[in-house]
Amino acid sequence: MIEAGMAGFVLGISLIMAIGAQNAFVLRQGLRGEHVLPLVLTCATSDMILIAAGVAGFGVLVESYPIAVDLARWGGALFLVVYGAMNFRSAFAGGDALEDAGRSSVSRKVAVMTCLMLTWANPHVYLDTVVLLGGLSSQYDPSYAFGIGAALSSYVFFFMLGYGARLLRPLFTSPRAWQVLDGFVGVTMWVIALTLMLG
Length: 199
What we know:
The protein is mainly alpha-helical. The longest helix has 27 residues. The chain is globular and about 55 Å long. Helix 3 runs parallel beside helix 6, helix 3 runs antiparallel to helix 8 and helix 5 runs antiparallel to helix 9. 78% of the residues lie in helices and 0% in strands.
């Protein structure tokens, strides 16, 4: 059981560490200190639900209906294009100053809804959690221990990302640094959108 759990944890965290739209958004909000707890809980709990579905065998159902994956792919690509454009606009406008971080730029509801869109409208999330992790869980006994380990890795990673971002705050005391970050996030969103449209 411990071996299965550790395997799930290691594989789960190796998949989630790759920079993506969701991670970039959580990093930005963590730097600003805005709504960090609800966002990391939203990301990690979403992963837990998807991993549980995969372990329960939902991955087979997803593969049986590729139209659902196509709809999520195009919808996610459109959302990422728009969100990336918003980040580019912010970068060209001059960036934010960290001194203004105490004044929330978005409400908690908007931040959580954005996070949900970045999570659930991304087909790669389903492939990584439901299909890949769900499929691999069948190789371990018990499979639920593998799933628990993978879900735990998501909680550990997002809490480290969201709250660890404060360690980088000294680098973001100037608007120029925020311009670079906004540009980086914008590029990340558009690259992922492009891979979705070409995929």
